[in-house]
Amino acid sequence: MAQLRLTSPVPGVVRPLTAVPDPVFAEQMVGPGLAVEPDRTGRQDVLAPCDGVVGALHPHAFALELDDGRAVLVHVGIDTVTLAGQGFELHVERGRRVRAGDRVLTWSPVDVAAAGLSTMCPVVALQAEAVDVTLLVPEGERVEAGRPVLGWTAG
């Protein structure tokens, strides 16, 4: 099966999931992936990392369901659920089909940081085997939103 390429949802610096200050991500409990430490801008669009159907949707996170049964999670900041949607603007609804690069939501990393929360954005291949997911960009490298950062081969 062809390798799925996941793109960065935000502009920033690629970090390992182990750097995320949340054990669910750092210990890869939900799956392997990476995190992007976003540029500190006032307003920033968060883009779909691949084609799929919006499954779970919250102001601070979304999951895309792929046609082949796989799913990808993008979490915007850590513990941002505590903001109860304040500062986040959704541009899609659940059940909508999106393409890689489509705008899913808008947020402010500056405001999230000001609230004392981590702005790290994990991108996770849900329930994937770590051996099936490869980094396409070295950790510590700065990427633009939409640049391929992960490869995921179906096991």
Structure commentary:
The chain has helices at residues 23-26, 109-114, and strands spanning 4-7, 12-15, 33-38, 44-47, 52-58, 61-65, 71-75, 89-90, 97-98, 103-107, 121-125, 133-135, 142-143, 148-152. With 155 residues, the chain is mainly β. The chain has one domain (4-132): Glucose Permease (Domain IIA). An eight-stranded antiparallel β-sheet has the order 9-5-6-7-11-3-2-13, with no helix packed on it. A three-stranded antiparallel β-sheet has the order 1-14-12, with no helix packed on it. A hairpin with a 2-residue loop joins strand 5 and strand 6 (61-65). The model has no long low-confidence stretch (mean pLDDT 96).
Offer a quick outline of the entry.
By secondary structure, the protein is mainly β. The chain is built from 2 helices and 14 strands.
**Amino-to-carboxy terminus distance:** 9 Å
Strand-residue fraction?
35-45%
How do the helices and strands follow one another from N- to C-terminus?
Answer: EEHEEEEEEEEHEEEE
Class per helix and strand makeup: mainly beta
Q: How is the main sheet built? A: 8 strands, antiparallel
CATH superfamily: Glucose Permease (Domain IIA)
Q: What is the 3D shape?
A: globular
The number of distinct helices, counting runs of at least 4 residues, comes to 2
The CATH topology name reads Glucose Permease (Domain IIA)
Name given to the CATH architecture: Distorted Sandwich
Instruction: Pick out the low-confidence regions.
Output: none
Report helical residue fraction. Answer: under 10%
Strand ordering within the main sheet = 9-5-6-7-11-3-2-13
Total E-strand runs = 14
Q: What value does the average pLDDT take? A: 96
How many individual domains? 1
CATH class: Mainly Beta
How many whole angstroms does the radius of gyration measure? 14 Å
